[in-house]
Design a protein that fits this description.
The chain has about 325 residues and is mainly beta. The protein has two domains: about 80 residues, Immunoglobulin-like (Sandwich); about 200 residues, Lamin Tail domain (Immunoglobulin-like). The chain has a six-stranded mixed beta sheet, with no helix packed on it. Strands 15-14-19-20-21 form a five-stranded mixed beta sheet, covered by helices on one side. Strands 3-4-8-7 form a four-stranded antiparallel beta sheet, with no helix packed on it. β9 and β10 form a beta hairpin.
């Protein structure tokens, strides 16, 4: 049990001395919510920073999901629902929990249906210097088939990002390429290919390829991080770090431009998702995008995944291969 130690100093002027009286007070701080995540098809886990219990009568659900069973173990409360959650679907519920001293916290949390059939995926090609008519674009390669439900692309990381896109339920097979691009000035309305991948939805449509046009997913054109997660609050699948800069030890933020960019890069470093030659990650450890353009994309070399810049190269002008095997030509 946490206690707060209070030191009270009382002056007794009549005897010209100071006496110190020590007293203790029970913990009055509410629990801190760490996460709410699906752990199987019909259960979620509420994780806090200390031992907690579920407060009955405070639960409500936007989707009217009813609780069948509640169990607690330390700082984790598990809620089992009567019905299964739809994989990748966003849910919203209100909860209240309390610690051993009766301190409570109520909160509304988003969580996503558990996906038991996640594919294995690589970020395989991308453009981060898009224009109003030829926007930013990313290609994913499926190394093992499954369901994309809940899989999320971040401009940044799951804990620190500028934009994101979460896939709906889409069955994919090994060897398939998935192309995701931002809406453009010419085509401002999102379009998601679910079953039929041969719908000609704009002039940049790629026949025979699952080609998605999404809103608000853009990348930095100078220094940045792109990541792929199992779900918005899930585990990381793949990541890339890129920059237009070179090492300069006198610059702030290790010459990655912005504090938030450096924070994201250091997060990937701590997860082992990007490798530096020595110690921390500097610009020369990242993929150089200096010579890339809206028609010269960054390509992964033969599906090599060493979590380093050596996995990547720039293709010549107009040799991008989104939706197909990467060109081996290098700029």
């Amino acid at each position: 049990m946490k206690k707060i130690l209070i030191i009270i100093v009382i002056l007794f002027t009549s005897c010209n001395q100071t006496k110190t009286i020590l007293s203790t007070m029970e913990d009055i701080s509410p629990p801190i919510l760490l996460s709410v995540t699906a752990v199987n098809e019909n259960s979620i886990a509420i994780t806090c920073n200390e031992n907690v219990s579920f407060v009955n009568g405070w639960y409500s659900s936007r989707e009217n999901i009813q609780i069948e069973e509640v169990s607690s173990l330390g700082g984790i409360i598990t809620l089992k629902f009567f019905n299964s959650l739809i994989p990748g679907k966003e849910y919203s519920s209100e909860f209240k929990v309390e610690d051993n001293n009766g301190n409570s916290i109520s909160f509304i949390a988003l969580y996503y249906g558990y996906n038991s059939d996640l594919p294995q995926i690589l970020i395989n090609e991308f453009i981060c210097k898009g224009t109003k008519t030829n926007p930013d674009k990313i290609e994913l390669y499926i190394t093992h088939g499954g369901d994309l439900a809940g899989v999320t692309i971040f401009n940044g990381t799951a804990t620190n990002y500028d934009s994101m896109f979460t896939f709906p339920s889409i069955k994919v097979v090994q060897g398939e390429y998935i192309v995701v691009r931002s809406v453009s000035e010419n085509y401002p309305i999102p379009f998601i290919e679910l079953d039929n991948i041969d719908i000609e939805h704009d002039k940049k449509f790629i026949p025979g390829v699952r080609d998605l046009r999404v809103k608000n997913l853009t990348f930095s054109g100078s220094n940045g991080v792109i990541t792929l997660y199992t779900q918005p609050f899930g585990s990381i699948i793949d990541a890339v770090v890129f920059t237009k800069n070179i090492n300069n030890y006198e610059k702030n933020y290790r010459n990655f431009g912005l504090k938030k960019t450096l924070q994201r890069i250091d997060e990937l470093d701590s997860l082992g998702e990007w490798i530096a030659d020595e110690g921390v990650i500097y610009p020369e450890d990242a993929i150089s995008i200096t010579k890339s353009t809206t028609t010269r994309s960054l390509n992964r070399s033969k599906f090599i995944d060493k979590n380093s810049s050596s996995d990547w190269y720039i293709v010549p002008t107009k040799k991008s291969t989104f939706g197909f095997e990467n060109s081996e030509l290098q700029y």
